[in-house]
Write the structure tokens for this entry.
Amino acid sequence: MRRTESVADNGRVLEMTREDFEELVAEALDRIPPELTRLMDNVAVFVEDEPPADDPDLLGLYEGTPLTERGEWYAGVLPDRITVYRGPTLRMVDGEDGGREGVVAEVEVTVVHEIAHHFGIDDERLHELGYG
């Protein structure tokens, strides 16, 4: 289980419907280069309103077996799961500090971060690449 870095609540919450947020996640997925999306295997992406209570600032979560760790034993398993959390993302971006554009940017970083975990890239390397 890999988690994106938590971000503190800034006290102001940007309003956005769940449908609009889901569309931003879909658009972020569409911006992933086709060469990479063709390599993604047995992974599903979900949007949830809130993360687990024990990690309320969590922006995204990858649960599964990275491609780099799959062997011949990997068959007949449930898909890996990437979850992007709407609540913490909206709480960290307010109208004065990026508004919708800030949410778009944060969703894109979160989606890339979690897909990178699917490809076996760890948090340390993601931080080096600017996705931490």
User: Anything to note?
Assistant: The chain has a mean pLDDT of 86. The CA atoms of residues 56 and 116 lie 22 Å apart.
